[in-house]
Amino acid sequence: MKIYVVQPNDTVDKISQEQAVSLDALIEVNQLTPPYRLAVGQALLLSDGIPSLTASPYPSRAKSVFRSGYAYPFISSSVLTETLSYLSELAVFSYGFTAYGDLIPPSLDDSWMTAEAQRLGVTAALTLTPLGADGHFNNNLVTALVRNLSAQRRLVTGLASVMLEKGYQTVNIDFEYVLKEDRDAFTAFVSYATYALNILGYQVSVALAPKYSDSQQGILYEGVDYGGLGAAANWVVLMTYEWGYTYEPINPG
Fold first, then answer.
1. Is it the case that residue 189 has pLDDT exceeding 50?
2. What's the longest Cα–Cα distance across the chain?
């Protein structure tokens, strides 16, 4: 039996990985309850009998949870600090862009959010959206961008500059209502952005509306190549909350 003393910024996922113990066993042996908050100095028991992650027959499927959450810059600082203790990634909402690829920052300063995320060991993600002046998703902006390589280059250069300045580590591309005819061009843009930003040490994710059918129709789905985007980006985020609000799709099955 081994005793581990909780250090600043520790989480159950982090301890499980670094100490090579099963996450489930770590939680069960120490009788931890959701949301598994830990106190600095807390003693945890690590049993020698707990199977290590490397001994698992499915090492690529080690049991851990990646928690991401969106937040606007007008969020209360106390709420943000409290919430960050539950997150792996903070996605700041949001940066926009012009048809020529000029990056548009949020109307309020977001630097304090990335600084707080860094302080607490949470990844900061810059959320990129094609929001128009009316605050709604504008697929005309998407069309202008994905069909103009020079605009894409200008946008990616702007993203890299802001990420370096403010400490962002990831770009979360949240393009909704992409037109069906822009499907392949959108995938190509994500592939280009991922390639360019990966070279600089940054990651790219794509937010996708969840589907209940591969042949599902609708403007949220037909302009999106799910398989292609999964291959183009470093990972995807399924916005399952879209199944729990006023305009959620009705599953005929």
1. yes
2. 61
Q: Where are the domains of the chain?
A: 2-61, 68-243
In a 13 Å sphere around the CA of 57, the CA atoms on its Cβ side amount to 0
Domains 2-61 and 68-243 are alike in CATH topology? no
Rounded CA gap, 70 and 68, in Å? Answer: 7
3-state secondary structure the chain: CEEEECCCCCCHHHHHHHCCCCHHHHHHHCCCCCCCCCCCCCEEEECCCCCCHHHCCCHHHCCCCCCEEEECCCCCHHHHHHHHCCCCEEEEEEEEECCCCCEECCCCCCHHHHHHHHHCCCEEEEEECCECCCCCECHHHHHHHHCCHHHHHHHHHHHHHHHHHHCCCEEEECCCCCCHHHHHHHHHHHHHHHHHHHHCCCEEEEEECCCCCCCCCCCCCCCCCHHHHHHHCCEEEECHHHHCCCCCCCCCC
More confident position, 222 or 61:
222
Say yes or no to pLDDT of 6 above 70: yes
Which CATH number among 3.40.50.720, 3.20.20.80, 3.30.420.10, 3.40.250.10 corresponds to the domain 68-243?
3.20.20.80
Q: Tell me the CATH class for 2-61.
A: alpha beta
